[in-house]
Amino acid sequence: MRLRMSEEQKTPDLTKGYEPAEVEARWYAFWEKHGVFEATDDSADTRPVYVIPMPPPNVTGSLHMGHAQRVTLEDALIRWHRMRGHNTLWQPGTDHAGIATQMVVEREIAREGTTRLELGREAFEQRVWQWRTERGDRILLQQRVLGASPDWKRSKFTLDPDMARAVREAFVRLHEEGLMYRATRLINWCPECRTALSDLEVENEEGAQGELFEFAYRVEGENEEIVVATTRPETMLGDTAVAVHPADPRYTHLHGKRLEHPFLLRTVPVITDDILVDPKFGTGAVKVTPAHDFNDFATGKRHRLEEINIFNLDGTLNDKAGPFAGMTRKKARTAVKQALDEKGLARGSKPHVLTLPRCERSGGVVEPMISTQWFLKMGGMAKAALEAVHGTETTAPKTEIIPAEWVKTYDHFLENIQDWCVSRQLWWGHQIPAWHGPNGQIRVARERPPECTPEAGWTQDPDVLDTWFSSALWPFSTLGWPDATPALKKFYPASDLETVYDILFLWVARMMMFGVQFMKEVPFRRVLLSGLIVDETGEKMSKVKGNVIDPLDLVYGADFAEVVAKTLPGAPEQEAFTKFKKAYPSAAQMGKGFPPFGADALRFTLATFPPTNRRIALALKRLEGYRFFVNKIWNATRFSLEHLQPLTHLPEGTPEPRGFYNRYILSRLGQAARIANRGIEGFRVDEAANELYRFFWNDFCDWYVELTKMVFTGPEEGEGDREREREETRHTLAHVLETSLRLLHPLMPFVTEELWQRVPKAASRPASIALAPYPRAEVDGRVDVAVEREMDLVQAIIGAARTVRSEHEIKPAERVSVWLRVENRDSALADLISRHVPAIRALVKTAGDPQLAGAGDRREAGTVVTVVPSDLGTVEVLVGLRGLVPKGKELARIDRELKRLDKDLSALDKKLQSSGFVDRAPKEVVAEAHAQRKAMAEARERVISSRALADELED
Fold first, then answer.
1. Of 560, 599, 597, 603, whose CA–CA distance to 578 is shortest?
2. Which residues contact 750 (CB under 8 A, 6 or more apart)?
3. How do residues 124-168 score in pLDDT, each as one tens digit?
């Protein structure tokens, strides 16, 4: 694709600092206007294809750090493949989010004094569609702010007409194959949402504090009783048996007897069951409530027990509960206990730790409930999904899960899968394509059958499908399935799916099953799983804790209190700010507010974390550091452009310089390109990001750019040779800078586009960096191991001298005396050092040229010796301090440094000895703390050793 850059894109000279707000919106508009992100399904296009289905965010959603992570990782993969010349599709869209959206709109109309029941289904659905039209695509606009580059023209909404058709087609096919069926059984019911839930929509709250209450059933017609225990006394109103173990001698004489229900005019039998009952636990007798407990339901089926539902859909007790009808579950629990006590049947209670099942959406306690629902048989599809990952005796695996540690989790879920309850008692969603006749008939069809009219007594099933049902079709329904479209042929299966690990079951496994079921092919070749974003202490982000950060506030800049006021509506500003400072101490250190970091700094920060870590601890101090990096790139380009004049274009190909430092930077560029390509391809985007950071900041800016100053600002003698050296250096500098921007582009697209437009480049380059070729080591660099080895020694010598300057607080303007002592002045090592004397003099700021000294030469008083090993022999770097560092000042520095280091070491040791930190903080945070401690300990040893040197100094 060839683009022309419009005049409005040609901005004036670079400002002193990068201003993201001015740059980012301008370039995003340019990319969209010129179709940079668009894929083509033209069969004549023979480019390799790369596809990622974007995990569709909920239509109710607003951007959070998890979304920012998705954009960062997926966009890096997409832009990398696009630059490699692939026909690249990142399929965008949003999910209708059944329960979530319905709850949002119900709360909205409640503030207007009405309910959905008062509105009626049709009017309510219209109201939800109105809400979606006005606000539903907000998150797609927010993704643009972060630089996401999907093919927006292909964006889908899971309730679009073509998507709805795909859902109906899938449902009907599954029903025709005998996999979709309707049954009455025990399901998870949310009284708050008033809908059925699948097992995966239930979150178990471990460690909840409860009570184990014991009471007695009297044996009918006898002066005897059986004591049972329960954490939910109210459910005894639905008991239809008491079970004992058949081999328990305590109850043999009661087998088949009946027990009197204390509140209802019925009796319950004593049954024997060796599956439900453990005779060693408690009294060895278990109350059986088939309609409200999954284990009891199975027991009831084995013994053909009556199933008595005692709850209304809102969780209150119904008329089957006798005198307790109309009470809430909590009130009934207390009332039943009191009534049992009054009848003399209570036998005491004790504290008990239990697991509470909660609805993932409302947070309410889930109630097992007997209900008629639609179910999908999962066994066969699960087997096929397992084979897709593991292969069979005759077929190879087709999908790889990265990291591989998640394969066991995937296997466990599929090997123990239950039939999926797919129906939901909601109004917002895909209404089930089934019609009920006046005599109990059921017709399943793609469209309403002509004979199933309302006049004939037929009604469509009022339930809708689980949101995850339509989401499971996402990889192929977005491409036009069930039609055999060009897009489906071109882009299915997808190359990669990237998502967070906690929806491996909810979404990934179901897409695998549906892909194989309907397309006879896996939906993607790789599943890339990444971790959850947590705060810098390892705590999960939540509004209650006050540690939630809106990514857009980081991009645009905000006041801390204002940020928290948004995330904690109704909380006093000071309280909110206090919570935020506690959760983010590094943020508080930056002051009350923070400047706009820009999308590139946020993206690059997220890219530097290993995506495979289960928890990714976001520290704002780290983000601030990468904002400095963006400015470093900006200012390095400003400096370079000043010295690249009059160069405006580069010749095709890579320079072949003669100068040592030019050859060195081209070698390091090649190594950086190799690591970056390997990292992105292997879903170790962090390895690519960290290597590019190290290369640009260290190799390019700290070393090469500093060394070019000797060339551009050096003496004019030997003008012919000097000009040739400058010309070679200009071409090398321009090539390395232009290539570096291309290397960085998938991670920070905005600043790289802005700068790339200004640097000299080959005439064959396209009008956008997004379409320029991604650098490769063998094309854009010239790896030379010997040059790098030599440069390593030079850097070690210069670094040793600089460390002495820094540790002894020598002012930057002061020049120091340096001696370089080697075993033999006539050796190859001495020759090597001699070649680099000008660089050492310039970068260390020495008083004259560093002097070569032999092994027998005496050390001057007041000099610091640092030993630098090398393959050619040892170099001793001697830096003179006399006349620069007074003795008293040096002793005061030593005391000051020791106090600081001891204080920091004590605080760090306390942190590392805290089980709360070591056990809860992400492993990379703990590892970083250990590394800090080691560095501090080594620094302390160096400070102590400085005392002897101080005695050689003068006051």
1. 560
2. 20, 23, 24, 27, 28, 147, 598, 599, 600
3. 999 999 988 887 777 888 889 899 999 999 999 999 999 999 999
